Amino acid sequence: MYVDFHAHILPGADHGSPDLAHSLRQLWAAKNVGVDTIVATPHFYLESGHTAEEFQSRRDRTYEALVQSNTTGIRIIKGGEIHLSYDLPTLEGLEQLTIEGTNWILLEMPRGIWQNWIADAIGYIESARKLRVVIAHIDRYEKSMQENLLDMGYGIQVNAENICNRLQRRKLCKLFKTGQAHLLGSDVHTDPVQSYGWFQKAVKILGQDGETAMETARSILDEIPS
Questions:
Q1: Which of 120, 106, 117 is nearest to 44 (CA)?
Q2: Would you identify the family this protein belongs to, as annotated (predicted)?
């Protein structure tokens, strides 16, 4: 059974699932390929005026709507995909943006090339705010951004779709093989059958490293009180 560490499945929470019916189709598509646990990761953009309180309220409301209609047996865990901005490290309530029940936070990097403030910002989140960082979809960033993030040694999540891409497959598989990448996500938004088809295929391409990624995800989520 699989853990999807990055998924936009909460109905109306962001530009992923637009409504409950779509969210349920996402869950059944996940169920059909063997996913039993999904971290729901709606977007958070401080620069768009979001607050931690608003985010938590939106996440809780949409989570409850989905859980009440979920008959798949899939465990849904509240998380977030938190866009890194210059002011994020000092945000009041930053701890509310973590994967609930843990001190892990999934960070999406700003667009463009590497900038030195990024290292300072992530370092502050870890050292001063005492949160543990996972970098979302390393495969989507510009080369200098990827290289610097990998050198920093944080948790790294990869999107299944790009492991299935022949142009990226070898490089991304190597990241898992060498222990530089740790977690797999569907990053599902609109087409659940395609996204979870890629997810299943990516786990098979990774082989034993895919199983290790699932074990790593479960070890993080085991921190959540039952």
A1: 106
A2: Belongs to the metallo-dependent hydrolases superfamily. CpsB/CapC family.
Q: pTM for the whole thing?
A: 0.96
Domains for the chain: give ranges and CATH numbers.
Answer: 2-221 (3.20.20.140)
pLDDT value for 114: 94
Q: What is the DSSP string of 74-131?
A: -EEEE--EEEP-TTGGG-TTGGGGSSTTSSEEEEEPPSSS--HHHHHHHHHHHHTS--
Q: Position of tokens 């490089």?
A: 171
| pLDDT single digits (tens) 104-135 | 999 999 999 999 999 999 999 999 999 999 99
**Cα–Cα nearest to 3, from 42, 39, 32:** 39
DSSP β-bridge partners for residue 55: none
| Residue 148 to residues 140, 145, 154, Cα–Cα distance (Å) | 14, 5, 11
- Beta pairing partners, 75: 37
Percent helix, strand, coil in the chain, to 5, is: 50, 15, 35
